[in-house]
Amino acid sequence: MHEHRPLVMGILNVTPDSFSDGGRYFQRDEAVRRGHQMVAEGADIVDVGGESTRPGAEPVPEAEELDRVIPVVEALSGQVRVSIDTTKEAVAEAAVVAGATLVNDVSASLWDVAARTGVGWVAMHRSGEPATMQDDPHYDDVVAEVSALLFERAARAASAGVAEVWIDPGIGFGKTLDHNLALLGSLGDLVSGGYPVMVGTSRKRFLATLGSGPDGLPLAVDGRLPGSLATATWAMAQGAGMVRVHDVAATVQAARLVGTGRTDSRW
Ligand code: HH2
Question: Mean pLDDT across the chain, nearest whole number?
Answer without folding.
Answer: 93
